[in-house]
Amino acid sequence: MKTRLTVSVVFGLLLATALHSYAATALETIKVPIDQVVNILKDPQYQDSAKKDEQQTKLWDIIHQIFDFTEISKRALARNWRKFSPDQRKAFTNAFTDLLGNTYLNKMQGNDYQDVSVVFFEEKKLSEIKSQVSSKIISRNQELPVTYNLKLKENRWRIYDVKVEGVSLIKNYRIQFKRSLKTNSPAELIKQVEKKAHQKDNQ
Fold first, then answer.
1. Looking at the DSSP assignment, which residues form a beta bridge with residue 117?
2. Which of 44, 98, 114, 186 is the most buried (most CB within 10 A)?
3. For residues 111 and 52, what is the distance between their CA atoms, to the nearest angstrom?
4. How far apart, in Å, are the Cα atoms of 111 and each of 58, 60, 85, 102, 149?
């Protein structure tokens, strides 16, 4: 009896260790939450304008889990990241996260997703810690190719860039920030991003 018990305990510990160390693939990591986002956008209860804030909160909770906004901010600033103090990096990341959220969530909520579906095709390993997942957003009138770039951080894949029809989300902002920092300080850029994040056009 004691021997059987010991074997059971050892087997259980080995199984627990294996499950704990298992890291889902990049595709597995993002497929379920992205499907959840589409389902929330399709949910008829949120057609009521009074429930838009509730819908946005649910969407934002999911997006925060799969996007690495610190990495996104770092890549958007590129070499200029080194010019920012630790506190400024944090402030910029918070402001840029708000800007992305207010801009793109409102655009998402303004579209009709009833006939939209997302199909995932393949995952391409770029390195031990980087991967790329290709997908397509299919609607009644078009098929839109979307590619997600992910980085493994603390045993978890998180998105650091999205390319729609080959156009990078980060690249456009990187050009804007580089241009601004030629004449403005990091503190001034942070104020600009904070102001833009809360403009009416983003609400």
1. 138
2. 186
3. 13
4. 17, 17, 39, 15, 24
Q: Domains in the chain and their CATH numbers? A: 2-202 (3.10.450.710)
**How far is residue 39 from each of residues 12, 50, 71, 132, 182, measured CA to CA in Å?**
37, 19, 27, 23, 43
What average pLDDT does range 69-88 have in this prediction?
A: 97
Q: Phi and psi for 88 in degrees, rounded to 5?
A: -70, -35
The predicted model scores a pTM of: 0.81
What is the share, in percent, of the chain residues with pLDDT greater than 70? 87
Structure tokens at 194: 């904070």
Average pLDDT over residues 55-73: 93
Asked if residue 202 lies in contact with residue 101, where contact means CB atoms within 8 angstroms, the answer is no
